[in-house]
Predict the 3D structure of the following.
Amino acid sequence: MTHSLAKRVKAMKSRVTVRAWEYRQRNLAKGTWHQLRRLLAHSSHAYALTEQSARALLAEGHRPEPVGERLEPSKVMLFVSTERLARIDDKRPIPVRLGVDFLSSRYVALVPFEVEGPRPRS
């Protein structure tokens, strides 16, 4: 085998190994990333919260989204109305996307899009 052919074979094996690892990670996630993206698609705004603010919202009856518990480290993600968020002083706006700000925040408040007219029944 020539040197250039051996180099190409090595590069191909490397790509196949990486692709297999990516597929394995995606399959082990059991749809978590898809669910997280879907959650963000339904959010108009996102805010990083302190632990105190998140605990207060949980005590008021806001339910954490299950997808946050499947991440590592786990996150507390709550859908909260704009009116309720206005009363929280220590919130910090973060982009509604899978970026550093969102992924590094342990407690996140999401504001759902406002739906005009009656909401469709599920």
